Amino acid sequence: MATWKLSFIVPHYAADGFADALGAAFEPEALAVSTSEANEGAATLVQTSSEWNEVVAHGDWRIEVLYADAPDMGAIRTLIAPIEHETGVDVAELAIEQMPEIDWVTKSLEGLDPVQAGRFFVHGSHDADKVPASAIPILVDAGQAFGTGHHETTMGCLEYISDIVRQGVRLNALDLGTGTGVLAIAIARLARCAVLASDIDPVAVRTARENARKNGVGSFVAAVAAAGFGHPALAARAPYDLIVANILARPLVSLAPAFRAHLRPGGTLVLSGILRIQEAMVTSAMRAQGLYLRSRKPMGDWVTLRIEG
After folding, report:
1. How do residues 110-137 score in pLDDT, each as one tens digit?
2. C-beta atoms surrounding 18 within 10 Å
3. Is residue 128 part of a domain?
């Protein structure tokens, strides 16, 4: 899938304002936002009460935003105009470019080490001999679907599954946006129960089924292609004791009423794919549906939320 990158440079003190505005926008919706130093600030000597010290001034920072589709320049200008007014920084140049179509998941996984997350040990075939005796192994090789345990969002979900799911205690579970199927597999490995997995991408659905088979839970994990809750199989199995959704903040917000409708009273949501700056937006949408934050696991720029009805 092709992606598009917006980039521009602003003074350091204004970078967070522009990044937050673009990351929180509904239209166009960002896949990811990053800031990095573009130019170092000049070092100057200043006199303190006792001596002269060198102080490095902050320089310019580059903001990069990824989009699934080419963003409209006019829409971008409208989004950043209030920040320009607030900071007094006029963004003269905006660069938009199409990124090369590379299988970044496979490329990024080359040579990655295994990951321990809660009771789970996620590894590739080449590391099968490294599984600790006390861990629950999950085999996931590099592929075209997202979710291997290496990203903070997947790790957070795995840790919550490890916390919530009791070994051998059956429950009705849904993995929404399953990717490689690693979260559905984790639930099935612990509870030995049927888990429904769904994803908007047919490639991910096939990958999840194959990975479930490789991990000995093929008979427990059923995978279907669906956008959100748009498949009759999801409604047929409701209400759920546990719904895990590692997608993106905007879809989570739009799905809040559907989560309420498909979760049993007292059930648990594990939500991820949420940047820290988007956490309040997600929790507010859930609270409006009578779903309340119980705990959170921040990792890097990301946060995974445990929410209960």
Report:
1. 445 688 889 999 988 878 888 888 899 9
2. 23
3. no
Question: Which residue in 176, 86, 182 sits closest to 141, CA to CA?
Answer: 182
What does the alpha-carbon distance between residue 188 and residue 167 come to, in Å, rounded to a whole number? 9
What CA–CA distance (Å, rounded) separates 157 from 305? 9
263-275 and 240-246 as β-strands: parallel, antiparallel, unpaired?
A: parallel
Q: Is residue 155 part of a domain?
A: yes
Q: Which helix (H) or strand (E) holds 100?
A: none
- The crossing angle, in degrees rounded to 10, of helices 152-164 and 182-191 is 20
Task: Report the C-alpha gap between 256 and 15 in whole angstroms.
Answer: 31
Which residues, at least 6 apart from 209, have a Cβ–Cβ distance to it below 8 Å? 181, 218, 221, 223
CA distance 67 to 70: 7
Domain housing 44? 4-98
Closest alpha carbon to 169 in 191, 148, 151: 191
Boundary (domain end) residue, out of 98, 125, 156: 98
Full-model pTM? 0.67
